[in-house]
Specification:
The protein has about 425 residues and is α/β, with parallel strands linked by helices. It has one domain (about 30-350): TIM Barrel (Alpha-Beta Barrel), CATH 3.20.20.150. It is built from 14 helices and twelve strands. It has helices spanning about 5-15, 20-25, 65-80, 115-120, 150-175, 195-210, 240-250, 265-275, 300-310, 330-350, 355-365, 365-375, 380-390, 400-410; strands at about 30-35, 85-90, 125-130, 175-180, 185, 220-225, 235, 255, 280-285, 285-290, 290-295, 320-325. It has a five-stranded parallel beta sheet with strand order 4-6-8-9-12. A three-stranded parallel beta sheet has the order 1-2-3. The mean pLDDT is about 95.
Length: about 425
């Protein structure tokens, strides 16, 4: 144990925080790492571009083009991150073996055997996402809300297949699988009917969820959005739509992506609001810059605030946390690691905050003192606790983890065509 940690530990103890306990606790809190940062949200089941109102920009060399490259890159990223991981997989990342192929509506657990192998090797659970984008069956930008019966049917069948695959993941890993439904369904310009698409969307999700599954193993959620590129005027899965859907469908969770709200809205404030009503909720953690740009997550104020709301409300076991961003303009493994480490820092920082003391000041209306104490907390020796946490997780706590990135880039990424 370093002298710096010893001294930091004493400072925190004077605020009533046991940093050893905090470190042991955080080690076991799972956070889902998204496979799609590794290849700019492309996957292995199609050659076409990324569509659906989301976009990656940049063409930093060395992106993963095969399952083995992606597994290797993810392994590298995870080796640089402290804490417990879950693996977040999209349906378009099916791994077809021996030349076989199945369209999205015909996907089977066996097409994800490699992911199970990968997760088990890492002692991790798996979260899953049907992929309702980047596919020729997206008709006029619509999937589950399409007025075309055949289109809807195809995507409903995709959703049902994904429920079966999610259950397979949960059974194989012994860890529940969070299955998130997000579509980019919407209109570029002012629609003449806003309710019709939403009624169809509602019915389609209901049909997907009518697929039998064990509610303890599969946790379906619905993700809202405010707008996407090319679908600026109307989004079928708006905030009110998805929240109401989750509230009225037993076992379905609301998923908030903090890039999916108007820029002055904050998800940190929405977390406690939803926790008053839902036993469990899910998050996509990202960093929007002016819009849902999905920049790499940083240890910034709103990130810290979101973590605080989860931790100080004792909700670490009620909130499924997943990262969701994609930057193609920088080293993708570093992007993964910076984001994952940032969320770990945010959780650790929240757990090192004397929340009981601060709540008491609020409840006793001692607002001057509350402000003073909140400012004092910002300068506690957090960096020393972070270094110790990393050390105990067997990963590098200082900037030298970047040396590993440089090495991997030289030895592996730069050799890719
Ligand atoms: C898009 C949503 C969605 C996707 C992933 C790839 O705006 O955030 O969650 O990012 O499904
Ligand atoms: Zn998201």
């Amino acid at each position: 144990m370093s002298a710096r940690y010893e001294s930091a530990k004493a400072v925190y103890a004077s605020f009533g925080i046991d940093t050893d306990k905090v470190i042991e606790k955080l080690k076991n809190v799972p956070v889902s790492l998204h496979c799609w940062q590794g290849d700019d949200v492309i996957g292995f089941d199609h050659d076409g571009p990324l569509t659906g109102g989301i976009q990656t920009t940049g063409n930093y060399p060395g992106k993963a083009k095969t399952p083995d490259e992606l597994f290797s890159d993810m392994d590298k990223a995870m080796s640089l991150c402290p804490g417990k991981k879950k693996i977040n997989v999209h349906a378009c990342y099916a791994v077809f073996e021996d030349g076989e192929f199945a369209d999205r509506d015909a996907l089977e657990p066996k097409h994800f055997r490699k992911w199970v192998e990968f997760a088990k090797k890492n002692g991790a659970g798996i979260d899953f996402n049907p992929t309702f984008f980047s596919h020729p069956k997206v008709k006029d930008g619509l999937t589950l809300s399409s007025p075309d019966e055949e289109t809807r049917r195809f995507w409903i069948n995709h959703g049902k297949a994904c429920i079966r695959i999610s259950e397979y993941f949960a059974k194989e890993t012994g860890i529940p699988c969070v299955m998130n439904i997000w579509t980019g369904d919407g209109y570029k310009d002012i629609p003449a009917d806003r309710m019709g698409p939403r009624m169809r969307y509602k019915q389609s999700i209901e049909e997907i969820l009518s697929e039998p599954y064990d509610k303890n193993l599969v946790k379906p959620c619905v993700e809202s959005k405010v707008f996407g590129i090319g679908v600026e005027s109307f989004t079928a899965g708006s905030a009110e739509f998805t929240l109401s859907f989750a509230a009225t469908h037993d076992g379905c969770l609301p998923l908030m992506d903090n890039g999916h709200y108007h820029p002055t809205e904050v998800v940190s404030d929405k977390i406690p609001a939803l926790l008053c009503f839902f036993p469990e909720i899910a998050l996509h953690i990202t960093r929007g810059v002016r819009w849902d740009s999905d920049h790499v997550l940083l240890f910034d104020d709103e990130t810290k605030e979101m973590a605080k709301e989860i931790v100080r409300n004792g909700a670490l076991d009620r909130v499924y946390m997943a990262l969701d961003y994609f930057d193609a303009s920088i080293n993708r493994i570093a992007a993964w690691a910076v984001g994952f480490r940032s969320w770990q820092k945010a959780l650790l920082n929240a757990m090192c905050t004397p929340s009981e003391m601060l709540k008491k000041l609020q409840d006793e209306s001692r607002f001057t003192e509350l402000m003073v104490m909140q400012e004092e907390c910002k300068l506690l020796p957090f960096g020393d606790v972070w270094a110790e946490y990393c050390e105990r997780c067997g990963v590098c706590g200082d900037k030298s983890w970047f040396d590993e990135i440089v090495k991997y880039e030289n030895e592996v990424l730069s050799k890719r065509s």
